[in-house]
Sequence to fold (752 residues):
Amino acid sequence: MHFLTEHEYAVVTRCADVMLPPHGDFPGGGVAGTAEYVDRTLGAFDFDPPRIWAGGPYSGRFGGDARFSEFLELSRLEELAWRTRIEGSRGIADREWNGPVLGWQEIYRDGIAALGAGFLDGDGVDQEAALAAVPELADLLFEHACEACYGAPEYGGNRDLAAWHAIGYAGDVQPRGWTDDEVSSA
Amino acid sequence: MPDFDVVVVGSGPGGATAAHVLAAEGKSVCILEKGRNHLLALAPPFDSLGHLSNDEIKFGRRYFLGPDPLLEPRTYRRSAADGDRTFTGDVNNMPSTVGGAGFHADGKLPRYREVDFRLASEYGPVEGADVADWPVDYDEMEPYYAEAERLIGVAGDHTANPFAAWRSGPYPMPPGADMYLATVTAPASARLGFHPYRAPTGVNSVPYDGRPACNNCGFCSWYGCPIEAKGDPIAPLRHALRTGRCEVRPESMAREILVDGSRTRSTGVRYVDATGTERVATADAVVVACGAFETPRLLLRSGIGNATDLVGRYLMFHMQTIVLGYFPFRLHAHKGRDVTHIMDDPIVGDADSAAAARDAGLPFLRGGIVEHGGPSHPVMEALYLPRGAGHTAAMIDSGTRDKMAAFTMQGEDLPQPTNRVDLDPAVRDVWGLPAGRITYASHQHDIACAEHWGPRLEAVMREAGAHGSAWVTSPGIPGSFSEALHPISRHWMGTTRMGDDPARSVCDPWQRLWDVDNVVVTDSSVFPTSTGYGPTLTLVALAVRAAGALAGAEPLRSQRPDPVSG
Fold:
């Protein structure tokens, strides 16, 4: 793991299942890989290039060379923005020209701590109530769960393309694309 | 000896087009672009960089095309009564990258009609707005429209729109495949008296200009095209670069347009490069094409063009009326070019809209083109569904994506002097410069238009088979849930309006600043009115015209058929 502790990883997994529950062929936000997505995002700068923007133009799933996993470099200013967003401004003057910024790492760490040590022992109702009491964590985690499950798997989620299969969505389709008939027909 | 003949600030459709025209006329050109380059190599053979992809996270959630709101926050308020600001962050942001705002669009490129250039003389004044005629008319613009369509590569059927102005020739390419959604909504529209037609689109329907035909991948709006089938922004940029007389400097933030001691002639541009080092590019002339948000910001910082206190004023966004139809069957709007059909009827108006105008105490109601489209991809769908039990079932059913159609009416919003871009008194960008502040509120006309056309377009959705419908606006109308939200139209116009009278405009009819005549603005900030059409083709056509004049080229001549001889 790159940022989350084992406990935090387990909490994120469980929260993702509460927010995006299993249904039909969808195994739930936890099994679909939300915690892996979150951990790679919070630990994005453990990698070089950082795990911010996947490469292109093709993933290989519909032909072409598989380049999504070759993440792209950030510029000097983009690195400043993403470190600030993820790590927080931390009192660093170069990051606080408009005031302090609370980072994603802080939101997760402090928010998961606020859920309490017994969070994983509770039932779904208890866990929903606990999350509702920490809205900053809940809102951010929900956004990341949606991205993790329904975005490209190269970011760490959408394990086995389970979410895309469940909703009947093909994902990125270049360079095959869709034929004119597939576009115009029901 | 200056470094260049011309420095162009901004590499979007206006800047890239100006650079192409100037370089083709033998001028040496330097394009300064604030954003990153993800588009094409800047050395021969100018190939694609391969950064663009069908990736909803990269483009939709992680600011890949910029600007990052942490680095470049914008502020917003509806009026001065709101105080300094009510919001800080992304306010109707357009891409900030090599290629500029050309990236964000699915490439709908309609022309304006004759009457759209003379709103004041045709329809008269409106209280609370400064409606004005353009200092050009359609006949003069027509050859520039034709050149813009050839440069970008527009696919369309020139016989399809009964309201269209005359043309000197057909589109360069035939239309592409109709989206299934439009095969449902277009006939329904026609049954209710509308006139839908295949939208002229800057996306190749056949191989054109050395670029392939579109393969309908469905990642059009908000994305860059991975296979270069979309002509804007790559076509004019690559043409400019291939002359050997044009260079592009990405990550170069223009701080100030420099002027001589008389303050009537520019000498170049001071900018900050990718390393944070301040540099100067000197030139005989400067073209400003940063878009209707950054252009006034740059002029205000530079202290030029603003003797009339009009720089930044008359900001226009289009009042978007978004009509949703919920269908019992799948529409797969994620396949195709996002929007393949539009209709002009709300701009043209009819007896019912004229009556609604009278009822509202207005001289007219001018709506906008209605784009037949729908939501495409699942991350955005997931974000707007209630979390918890039912979320996954809702995603599988896809009532708010795969089974939803959306009409977007680009309603004409009237130019009001209080709607403006100015410099925020406190918030700063990463370069330490005052953030741009947007003050914007809708005119009674814009609201009345939405209130009239929203229900009529809902009726079309029902006629098409929708079991439910709704309409919303951006910006929100008073009393609606979205009233306080900032606009999201991604159209910007009007902040350095052009005109015949230097007391009532910032630019002259050739888009030169009245008070610094070797500075030319080639973006949609020169628009005196917004009309109800997307701005891109018109700003590109104007850029061809203005850059040609700057280069001393012969103007293009109209070929309007003689009404007698035909």
About this structure: The mean pLDDT of chain B is 96.
